[in-house]
Specification:
By secondary structure, this protein is an alpha+beta fold. A hairpin with a 4-residue loop joins strand 1 and strand 2. The chain has four helices and eight strands.
Length: 192
């Protein structure tokens, strides 16, 4: 689970690192192999000259789906498809010993997740699956101050001795309250 969660952090950091100052993101949706975002560009040419070449290092295809002239900026929806497999970092994932001697209830998991999230976050039970492992899936909506708060959340759940996996899609949107992030979590434990 740690490697999967770290991959999400790396994907998001790669995207945030290439966004120039002349581009302001308002929404972003990250899927396992695709990325779509809504942004304001200072100039139409920024996409072709600055943004697209960098995005094509991460994705096989990058294009503007829609652009509107909203003087003094241009609002655009940019789609990026088919993530190019990046070389994994040499940073080794920490190996945790999972706690598998104690069954954790859906309610206890929900309360544990709320500890790591901002106060007014919404954690909703989505589903339960039983195979080799018992998996509880939750939808989460949180208002953050900045993207690094999301990274901090992932780092905190990675420290826990449980298999907690952040699932795609992950959506970020600027709102009047702050940065809204919507995503899902899968909590896995041995089925007893």
């Amino acid at each position: 689970h740690i490697a999967q969660n770290e991959q999400i952090i790396q994907q998001l950091l790669s995207v945030f690192d290439i966004i120039p100052y002349s581009v302001v993101l308002s929404e972003l949706q990250l899927e396992k192999k695709n990325l779509t975002f809504v942004c304001s560009l200072l100039h139409k040419e920024i996409f072709d000259k600055e943004l697209k070449p960098k995005l094509l290092k991460l994705y096989n295809k990058s294009e503007i789906l829609l652009i509107q002239d909203k003087k003094p900026t241009f609002d655009a929806i940019i789609a990026n498809n088919h993530l190019i497999q990046q070389k994994s970092s040499n940073k080794s994932s920490k190996q945790l010993r999972y706690k598998n001697n104690k069954f954790i209830t859906k309610k206890a998991i929900k309360e544990q997740l709320k500890v790591f999230l901002p106060k007014n976050s919404i954690v909703t039970f989505k589903s339960r699956h039983k195979l080799k492992y018992l998996t509880y899936n939750f939808n989460i909506t949180a208002i953050l101050k900045e993207p690094k708060d999301f990274f901090h959340f992932i780092e905190e759940i990675n420290k826990k001795p449980y298999s907690i996996v952040v699932k795609y899609p992950i959506e970020f949107a600027k709102t009047k309250k702050g940065l809204e992030v919507i995503f899902s979590i899968a909590f896995n434990q041995l089925y007893k």
